[in-house]
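[agent] plan:
  1. take the single chain provided in the ticket
  2. run structure prediction with default settings
  3. attach structure tokens to the ticket
  4. add a short note for the reviewer (M.T.)
[agent] executing step 1
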Amino acid sequence: MASALTFLFLSCWLAGHSGVWGEPSYPKPNISLSPSRGVSLGGAVSVWCRGQRQGVRFVVNKERRHFPSVDSDDNEAVFPISNVSREDGGSYSCSYHSRSEPHAVSYPSDPVELVLRDPSLPRPSISLSLTGVTTPGADVTIRCQGQRRDVRFFLHKPGDLNPQQHMDPAGDGAKFLIPTVGQQHRGSYSCSYRPRSEPFVSSEPSDPVQLVVADPSLPRPSISLSPTGVTGPGADVTIRCQGQHRDVTFFLHKAGDLNPQRQMDPAGDGAEFHIPTVGRQHGGSYSCSYRNQSYPFISSQPSDPVQLVVAEPTLPKPVISPSGEVSLGGYVSIRCRGQGLGVRIVLNKGGRHVAHVDTEKSVFEFPINNVRREQSGNYSCSHHSRSEPFVTWSDSVELLVRG
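[agent] step 2 finished; step 3 output follows
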């Protein structure tokens, strides 16, 4: 029954345009819009129709609207629309027929939608559930957030002609799930929405987000800090990323920051990121990755992280004890008393990290059995919250080994 209705509709459509009933004799043309990404209200757009015959007459059709036909000596014709209004939005198709033989007609083209952007509609926002570099096989959710209800959201990716869509009859947002991410999903995404009452009127697209997928075959870079250890406020720090490929872009990631720093490396295989005048806002966990300039959405796996720990003079100082002498081969216990619970207590000797412990206690003892000569020296302890990389130091005590 559906096939019969389709044939009847096609026959009526052809009769209305050729004046003759009959089977189409020409292949269907192609239809396109210029610009192809839509047009804002008040702008201009052109409908292009391209056939496979020369010296024909082209006709463009929109629901309940007919455009003047265009005679073309070439195999294409253009139908300009200036000062676009809401009434111009909709689905368009075109056909062509012989000028000398009106019954020689083409099939109608596939339809193309003219969607009009309304600048008065607030732009939506877009976010990824996984920020930074995504591991293949992970599940990613792209969330679009608007300010209007009863709308349909559309997810756009360059090169995809048919955007995904998601109806949101109740809330003001939509979630697009990408299960088991692969290299085919990498790229730049944006979203827009259309009121259900105006299906051919759209908001402006959101700012884009980049879905970058890691390639496990790329060697992971290494990362290092200079200087190492705890950094005092106001110091200059250099973070160096080292890879094994040239002509790449390095990216420095800090946990919690959505926008990594980047640095092009057209000659060498490494990059240096300079942090002058370090403050507590710079403390945190850093890693780096790189991407080939020819494939900007394919990344190496991130490096192992390094911790930039910033000394914080305003935190209460811990207390260390005892000082004095101990016999060679004897036993001593160095006690560090912190000023809070749930901290990391670190024992340092001569500015070097000796041992550490994560504890819920405010006091911890570091035992030294069978004391050796090289264990004499100046000891201090430091403590910091496990959730914040800011540290403060105790005064130092001196341990002397007799014998």
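[agent] step 4 note for reviewer: Residues 319-402 form a domain with the Immunoglobulin-like fold (CATH 2.60.40.10).
[agent] ticket updated
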